[in-house]
Amino acid sequence: MLRSLVGSEMCIRDSSYPTCTEVVTELARRCNVALPSEKELHGHMAQFVNVDQGNMISEEEFQTVVFEIFAAVDQAVFLEAVGYYNLPFAGTRDEVLTNFFQRHNRETMQAGEMRDILSRFAARADTGAPPTDEELDQTLASQFSGVKDGKGVVTLQEFVDYFVGQFSETNDTEFFTTMQYLWHGYLNFY
Question: Mean per-residue pLDDT for 71-78?
Fold first, then answer.
């Protein structure tokens, strides 16, 4: 829950009192509840030492004020109001693959880098034994025209088309997990 406030527009680091009032007012509107009186709001704010010193409160103090004021609001309503369910969207698979490609490349990628990606991709698929060097070279030569004709490069479009095809039967969770693995070389679950 704290992450929701920290990550949303409700997060105010070192906020002044009028800003906190504005946020609380908007949150009250979204929760469809009556806003506390000015005196009541000032009472919530006055418990913090910093309020008397320039009307500033820290992020933690801000969260405490918000939680105190909205403690009686139904949790589902409150979570919706602070944007807890508005999850970030990574983009289409084409966009994710394009971003991955362009991490180190513009229009073309060296065949050696693509070979490393194919090797990690095969390891993630866990289809048994890892592919041999010959199998990786055969995949490169058969799938990518820049490798086939001796230039030793893979274009952005070939890269995206290849992996869109490879992921065609994969659900989104598996796709994004695999992309994380390809990007970092390992999986990191918090």
Answer: 88
